[in-house]
Amino acid sequence: MSNGKRTAGFSKTSLIKGIQCPKALYLSKNPPAIEIKPDPDLEAKFQTGREVGILAQQLFPGGTIVPFSDLSATEQIAKTRELIEAGAEVIYEASFAFDGIFIKADILVRTGTTWEINEVKMSTSVKDPNYDDAAIQYYVVTNCGLPVSKVSIVHINNKYERQGDIDVQQLFTSEDVTELALVRQEALPDIITNLREALQGDEPTIDIGGYCTYPYSCEFVPYCWRDIPEDSIFSLKGRGINKFEYYGQGIVRLENLPLDKLNDAQRFQAIATINKEDTINSAGVNDFLESLWYPLCHLDFETFATPIPPFDGTRPYQKIPFQYSLHIQKKEGAEPIHFEYLVEPGDDPRRELAEKLLSEIPEGACVLTYNQTFEKGVLKNLAEAFPDLADGINIRIENIRDLMVPFRKRDVYRWQMRGSYSIKEVLPALVPELSYDGLAVSDGMMAMRVYHEMCKIDDPDKVAELRKGLLEYCRLDTLAMVKILDELIKIL
Q: Which of 95, 170, 303, 425 could form a disulfide with 319, with the two C-beta atoms 3.0–4.6 Å apart?
């Protein structure tokens, strides 16, 4: 349904991009002369969002979908009009256009003489940008002549625990955002006018700012930030100074910062980087090493988390382990023995993984992790899921020690770590000959994505290739721990 006006067109997504930053909208219409690499994690997120949207349709059964893949935008709008005039009660992906803005309402429900818009999100709460989303939908639909009595954000209920088939009424919860949608849509005409003007001229002269990453990360950061040096004020980790405030004063490089204005952690990083200084606190390293014992088991999990819980006893976004790597040293300096596990595609991995892990980690062994909060969380979930294994799992939890500790406390700090104690920064600084570069899988997000891909294909050769990449990556995580520990021992 459209008023027939011919103007520069927007989708709801592009309009929200422009609200965040007009320059990002301009660049999306006029790509810069620099390679902007596609973000596979973002595409995976979109696919998951589509799956959540389809499942949410079951909240309002019996509706008719207006497909976007088989019809042009004009045909989608016409199909929506046809369904409304035919008396449809529920329409999925209902399509409208007003003033050159094209939107698709996830779930449109007739309530007597008015309609309700239900926008589906895969988050576990309503976030501020969702109100703009709702406002745009209200603005377009009502200006197309359809009376709207309510706009709701339907999102995931992270307290839901699956037992049997998915209960959509429990998985989703809904929040009425009509009042805020009404308020925000009043500003839309001016916003749209300003964005159209921005698209008519040259590239907007908008400098970098907090809007480069909030509320959404912008794909044009490599372009807009291309002149920011590596050791800039933006490389400072953690909370502290307002970096954009100093940037606005023309202070970009670390060496130009007034160091007395920095907190202890950021001052430490800045001085170490400027002077290329390393720090070693032998007493702290010794205390850490004294807390370990043998046999020593270097443990790392890979997990996935989805908004739709895949197995009985799981909740939305619960971290479910599908893989682990284990390097066991029987005594100090011993050649580690490697064990590993990777579930077969599609199976619930938890029971088999837990049993295999308990058989491989001796009951009295020291379990070394990198960021113990993560591994402990995974193990606690396994103990809750399988009470008969809980005692054995809890003993291993009690024996966990964290290799991150001496780096978080900065008992060992190399200036190349750039203020971080992530293993991805610590490893190249301490063990430069060991690297994730060149691996088919090079980080945890990629591992999760590859696992999901492996679960969706039938080609055994492709599955074998993906498994190989996952195993190599996870193995390197625990081998890296072995090598980092060796370096700590050498320090003393």
A: 303
